[in-house]
Amino acid sequence: MFKKLAAAGAGRPLGEDGFPAGPWTPELLAEAISQIDSNQAGVDLRTVQLWFQENDRGISAANIRWLARVFGCDDPAATAAWQVELSSAQARLQAKRREAKKADSLALESPDVSPDPTVDDEQSSALELTPEAAADRKKQRFGLARKSEALFSGGSPLNLPASVFAGASALGFLSYIVGIHSAVYVRADNVAKEVGFLWAPNWTFLFMVLLPLFFALVTELLAFWTKKGRVKLWSGSDTTTSEDDWARNVEASSSSYWAVFLICVLFAGVFQWIGVCLIPLLEGGADYATSWGTLATVRPEVISVPVSIGFTAFAYLYMSLCFYLFFAGLILLHTMVHDLRKIGAEATILQQVGSQGEVYELCLRLMRGIFRCTILGILVAVCMKAQSSYLTSNAKNIVDWLSGDMYSALAGREGVSNGFHYRMPTHYSSLLVALSTLVVFVYGSICLRAIGTRFHVPLWKMAAVVTWLFATYLLVDAFVGFSIVLGSGVLVAVFSLVDPGLGSRRSSEIGSKQIVS
Predict the structure, then answer these.
(1) Which runs of E-coded beta strand occur in 160-251?
(2) Domain ranges of the chain
(3) Which of 78, 92, 433, 478 has the greatest CB tally within 10 Å of its CB?
(4) How far is 293 from 195, CA to CA, in rounded Å?
């Protein structure tokens, strides 16, 4: 029945002559099903291709619903009628297969269950479920992992970066309204320090530039991998659809998403706000350097304690949610690399996909996207550590701190030590950010090195840049002249973001030469 309907183009728009525009192809049908508003998960092209093949496979109940809507042109009555007809045909196919197995004397452990898959990749028992039950089961699987992935893959690619930028802009406006956008206080040793909100790069440059760029890159890479990269590689793989389904790969990391969410919201958000801001504001004094969050303890005429408590609570909530999304992006990058391994690119793909150069392009594009995200992740850690180190220094503002260090290094002077010793929790959290970013990059590098030797040269270049940037992070405020190293690291990072190929020729030309050789 499905093949007849597909050949007749049932549900396709009518042409000028009043007849359907033509038969359905796997690509057109997959696109039509994915465009249904209520079908957020979509359908994989490989799944639809199986429906057109001579393999006696059926179609799951969930996908029968989408087919009924396509064939019925989204008309409720027509959709219901098509769903009944398709479900009946599916039941007849199942009964026919069971009778054939009995005739061949193939005993079954359970007479009601067929050992061969009679449905597609979504669920082997979907035929037993009503459409309502299938929808309920889908909702149960739609947990934090799928919702987080939907933030990166749903809607416009600008949605998430623009939202983060808007939140940072709102905090900047609020800081100006309450009067802490720029504020100087005199420390106990008569050192004047600028601690205004807009002077803190870990709250301005980080959330207005680095994180929006990171989210934009992850969103772009996720769209490339799910809609082009894995579909192209998968078309040449012998693996089954159930093993390579992207939604299941995302759901498999559900525990990781929950762990990251709890750490970011509870520890990095609530507990850190209580320890760093709330307690010092209520009791006065602390072991932490004074910042815009605790300015009310030294300059109550600028901002009151209640206003400061409310502003810092909002800021830390925003910060914790943004960093959850940052780590969720890292988990998605890891999932893409893991998905590449599951497809079997190291052996099957390279032999079955028509052009090895095309496979090389797909894999290298994935790794270059991860490389750019790694650069931004390390720069995030650098911003956090630099601001924390500045607050404990003797410089008036962060610009004077960096320029003074560079001048001292060039003039051969020694740095001025600080008599105050503060706790710096941001040093620890920034290290977690840097290490987490490195883990994803290293994992991706190992996977691509296992695929073939043609990736070794690009990976060595990327690894050299990442190593230099991580060393730059570690050397912040470690010695006199660290600002020179920091400046060189930033220049290398900007060049690598603009040209992730690091000045080499087009990867397609390199790949083709290596294949010929």
Answers:
(1) 184-186, 192-194
(2) 2-114, 147-516
(3) 433
(4) 9
